[in-house]
Design goal:
The chain is mainly alpha-helical. The protein contains 3 helices and no strands. It has helices spanning 3-31, 35-60, 63-89. Helix 1 packs antiparallel against helix 2 (35-60) and helix 2 packs antiparallel against helix 3. The longest helix is centred in the first third of the chain and has 29 residues, at 3-31. 3% of the residues are buried.
Length: 94
């Protein structure tokens, strides 16, 4: 069994799981009762997309996809820091 066929077999199980997780996160982002639930859902969606992009970057051997995945993960991390600082001190600044 070649590496490519193993990858496609793995993707048959991984893609539906990613889609299910993304749907659950989207529902939580739209219906979240608190702002913390919404932030957590958006954060999870961002990191899931970044992880999926990293998997695709390895498969397609694309440096552009991996750089976009790293940028997305860093953006999600900065969003967490920004919102946490806002929720604690009710102001965002230096």
């Amino acid at each position: 069994m070649s590496l490519e066929s193993q990858f496609f077999l793995l993707m048959k199980f991984v893609i539906p799981l990613y889609l299910l997780a993304f749907i659950i996160y989207a529902i939580r982002a739209f219906k979240g009762p608190t702002i913390v639930d919404i932030i957590l859902a958006v954060d999870c969606m961002s990191f899931d997309i970044a992880a999926f992009m990293a998997i695709l970057a390895v498969y397609f051997k694309s440096a552009f996809l991996i750089s976009a995945a790293i940028t997305l993960a860093l953006w999600a991390y900065l969003l967490d820091i920004y919102i946490a600082k806002h929720l604690v001190s009710r102001e965002v600044g230096a």
